[in-house]
Each structure stands twice: as C-alpha cells, then as structure tokens.
C-alpha cells in the first residue's frame, strides 16, 4: 500500500542510494509539453537534508527541466526499484537552478562525487510531499554497469562544443527561456573536478 512520509528518513535515504537511476518530471504552466527525463550516474543525486535534495544537471540535447523550473518551479523526482524488492518513491517539490558561477554551487556540489565534465548546473529541490507506491508491475532488471558515454563525450568536448550546446539550450522545445546568454560552459569553470586553463 502507498504511504506518505513526513521527511526523508534514513530508510528512504538508503533506498535512494541503492538506485542506479532516477526520473525527473516537469511541465510548463500553460500548454506545452510535459517532460520526463531519465537520469543516470548514481553519484549525481544527493539528499541534502530531510526536506531538500539536489542533482547535477549535465549538458544534453534538451533543456526542458531548467525551462520549466524557471517558469513555475514544479518538479517530481521518481525512484523505481527494479530488484526483487519492488518499490516506487516520488519526491514532489519546488526546484531551482544553481548555476556553476553562483556562490551556492560549490556548497551544493560538495555533496557529489568528483564531478562530471559536462555539468551544466545543479538542481536543488525543496521537497513538499514524499510518497511511495508498490511497483508490483515494474519488471525485474539487472544492472550491468553505468554507461560512460556521456561523460566520455563531455571529457573530449571543446569550449566551442559546449558553447554550441549552450546556444541550443537557450530555449525549450516550446520556446520557453532556459539558459541565459551568460550561462558558463564547463571549460570556463571546472572539468572533471580540476581547474580549466
């Protein structure tokens, strides 16, 4: 049976830490498309406290989550167990974008691993509702390994390549504003946890 929780307690933190991936859902205020994104790399999600979580947002082909958060802040994160212990956990909340040049960025990213070369921003979420569900119809799947393709591509990318990605990330597919023109690209800040230059 579904259960609602008052906070992200130790058992929920443990469940979150065991999951190899999570899903992020957002939607614009009016019309437009609902966005649902799978997120990998288990070291890109962190529980900051009993009602706050964060994840690293990596450069990719789209920028829907950032655009929707700028529009209304609504976000849902879902963890889904594919092991023998079936469970779905949803965190409903209000998210905000922390840019690499924001003072808060270093404090937030200290909760993650050594870093990823294509980090675009950190998403910080104030969690307002925590609820689980059974997940009885979710199939059993076995994790082979994390897929290194995105990190490898970002590690080889030039500043010009990231600048091109940033330019394509200025607006969502529905035309909502996303990355600002002065949004820093990874080679201008940090790559793989080491200073650039």
List its salient traits.
globular, single chain, disordered C terminus, Split_barrel_FMN-bd, alpha+beta, Pnp Oxidase, Chain A, Pyridox_Oxase_N, 197 residues
Q: What does this entry show, briefly?
A:
Pfam families: PNPOx_N (PF01243). With 197 residues, the protein is an alpha+beta fold.
Biggest pleated sheet:
8 strands, antiparallel
Q: What is the average per-residue confidence, as pLDDT, rounded to a whole number?
A: 92
Please indicate the count of domains.
1
| Backbone shape | globular
C-alpha termini separation: 54 Å
Stretches with pLDDT under 50, minimum 5 residues? 189-197
Residues in β-strands, percent: 25-35%
The CATH class label is Mainly Beta
The radius of gyration is 17 Å
Instruction: Assign a percent range to the helix content.
Output: 10-25%
Q: Count the beta strands.
A: 10
Task: Examine the secondary-structure arrangement and name the CATH architecture.
Answer: Roll
CATH topology: Pnp Oxidase, Chain A
């Amino acid at each position: 049976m579904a259960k609602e929780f008052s906070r992200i307690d130790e058992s929920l933190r443990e469940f979150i830490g065991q999951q190899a991936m999570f899903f992020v859902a957002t939607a614009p205020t009016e019309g437009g498309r609902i966005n649902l994104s799978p997120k990998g790399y288990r070291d890109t999600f962190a529980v900051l406290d009993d009602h706050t979580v964060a994840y690293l947002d990596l450069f990719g082909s789209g920028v829907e989550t950032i655009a929707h958060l700028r529009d209304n802040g609504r976000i849902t994160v879902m963890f889904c167990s594919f092991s023998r212990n079936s469970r779905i956990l949803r965190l409903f909340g209000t998210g905000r974008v922390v840019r690499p040049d924001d003072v808060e960025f270093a404090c937030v990213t200290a909760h993650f691993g050594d870093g990823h070369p294509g980090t675009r921003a950190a998403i910080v979420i104030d969690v307002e509702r925590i609820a689980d569900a059974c997940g009885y119809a979710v199939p059993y799947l076995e994790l082979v390994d994390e897929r290194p393709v995105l990190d490898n591509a970002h590690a080889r990318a030039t500043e010009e390549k990231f600048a091109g990605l940033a330019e394509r990330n200025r607006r969502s597919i529905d035309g909502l504003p996303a990355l600002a023109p002065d949004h820093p690209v990874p080679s201008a800040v940090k790559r793989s946890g080491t200073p650039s230059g």
